[in-house]
From TrEMBL:
Gene3D superfamilies on file: MetI-like (1.10.3720.10)
Any Gene Ontology CC annotation: ATP-binding cassette (ABC) transporter complex
Keywords: Cell inner membrane, Cell membrane, Membrane, Transmembrane, Transmembrane helix, Transport
Domain ABC transmembrane type-1 stretches: 4-203
Places the protein is found: Cell inner membrane; Cell membrane
Classification via NCBIfam families: HEQRo_perm_3TM
Spans through the membrane: 6-27, 39-61, 81-98, 132-152, 182-203
CDD domains attached to this UniProt entry: TM_PBP2
Gene name as annotated: hisQ
Source organism: Mesorhizobium metallidurans STM 2683
UniProt family annotation: Belongs to the binding-protein-dependent transport system permease family. HisMQ subfamily.
Name of this protein: Histidine/lysine/arginine/ornithine transporter subunit membrane component of ABC superfamily
Keyword S-adenosyl-L-methionine: no
Length: 221
């Protein structure tokens, strides 16, 4: 039960962090200067090209060590970063690259007349983002973001390799003690499936609410 709770906590935290990074990254790639666009292009390309397990190992160990080295150089004491915070930060960083591209595509799908009209009224970039861009792009972004949520839920299992106690590590430990590998791994698979099914129901309601007043997907076909 504790392992499942940690899995859900990390998935929610990583998805929220990735969403924040994605909004900023998409806005930067669309409206930022050349340097910002180039840096974001490198970020999204590298993260999407390197296997997630390699990124997790690199960021989990090298990232925490780098933070402590910087703190030591500044005269501060080394700190112990909790596994939960590190897991959220690592997966959130990975999620951010994918969220950037999903949200960028959703913004491009918005009829540009809406954005041009808002600019004609003199809206600031922040107000334009909050009042026009985010609400208008949400129906286009939900399917992609829903997939990223499901990926984040499954990617929490990769944190078992760095010793963080989540559902997969809890299953492995229980199976190792009891030698009932088939029973425990089937149970873990069923739990992941249940989380996915519940997530799909919730996402379906959110998407239906976000698409109110818009043609249904069946009609669009």
């Amino acid at each position: 039960m504790v392992g499942l709770l940690h899995t859900i906590e990390i998935a929610i935290g990583a998805t929220c962090l990735g969403l924040l990074i994605g909004i900023g990254g998409a806005y930067g790639k669309l409206y930022g200067g050349p340097v910002v666009r180039d840096l974001l292009a490198v970020y999204t390309t590298v993260v999407r090209a390197v296997p997630e397990l390699v990124l997790i190992l690199l960021l989990y160990y090298a990232g925490t060590d780098l933070i402590n080295q910087v703190l030591a150089a500044l005269g501060y004491q080394r700190i112990d970063i909790s596994g939960l915070a590190a897991g959220i930060a690592v997966l959130g960083f990975v999620q951010g690259a994918y969220s950037t591209e999903v949200i960028r595509g959703a913004i491009l799908a918005i009829p540009q007349g809406q954005i041009e009209a808002a600019r004609a009224y003199g809206m600031s970039p922040g107000l334009l983002l909050r009042r026009i861009t985010l609400p208008a792009m949400l129906p286009f972004a939900i399917p992609g973001l829903a997939n990223l949520w499901l990926i984040a839920t499954k990617d929490t299992a990769l944190l078992a390799v760095v010793g963080f106690y989540e559902l997969t590590l809890a299953t492995r430990q229980a199976a190792g003690v009891t030698k009932a590998y088939l029973t425990f791994y089937l149970a873990a698979g069923a739990i992941y499936l249940l989380v996915t099914l519940i997530s799909n129901l919730i996402i379906g309601r959110i998407e239906a609410r976000a698409r109110r007043g818009m043609p249904s997907l069946k009609e669009a076909r």
